[in-house]
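BUG: 3D viewer hangs when loading the predicted structure for this chain

Environment: internal workstation, default settings.
Expected: structure renders.
Actual: progress bar stalls at 90%.

Input used:
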Amino acid sequence: MPQGSEHTVKAFDDDIGEVRALVCEMGGLAEKAIGDAMHALIRHDQETATRVIEGDARIDELEIEIERQAVRLIALRAPMADDLREAVAAMKIANVIERIGDYAKNIAKRVPVFDRHGDIEPLSILPSMATIVSEMIHDVLDAFAARDAAKAAAVIDRDRAVDDFYNSVFRALLTFMMENSHNISQSTHLLFIAKNLERVGDHATNVAEMVYFAATGEHLHDRETGNLPLTTDPEDDVEEPAT
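Structure tokens produced before the viewer hung:
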């Protein structure tokens, strides 16, 4: 390989490495935000909830920085094939992670509601669901960093468990509301939280699809759960009121 070509390849590797590191940092913050928001919800910890809400600004900043660096990389290095796929995937993944951060913020905004109402039995169901989606985020980021298509596909397979969990939570909350009409307000908030977590699982699946495509150049089709879009959908543009 000519010396100039070696230099160009190294320069690209350095640039994409920086972008990859920013994506992983952003994803780590989103993963932590989900965990902290659920901790705040269970413990009625308004201080932690406030940190989650304020910390969303850093996630937004990282999205902008990733897009800036990825666009610069494409313009200056003119990557081809799998290199181009990875650069484009980084921008798309950053957009999805930003939405995950928004869901964590939405959960944190509801903490004062449950502080007023005290402990609610169905609330104890949600931490396990949050654990699953947090693990999905963590694993899909590992897959992205390692360009591991198999690990990405494994994340996709776990989305059904999140959907099953959401259906269980829905049924439990429906029963809770039918037992006492005074439970309707609190249960509605819990349903929004459960839906937020279910959407986080969907977004982790979206990221896994992008990672798989970036690594292999192939799309995953004909999954039993159906294909999910690689961008946000209209539902994501609506932020439910916190109170």
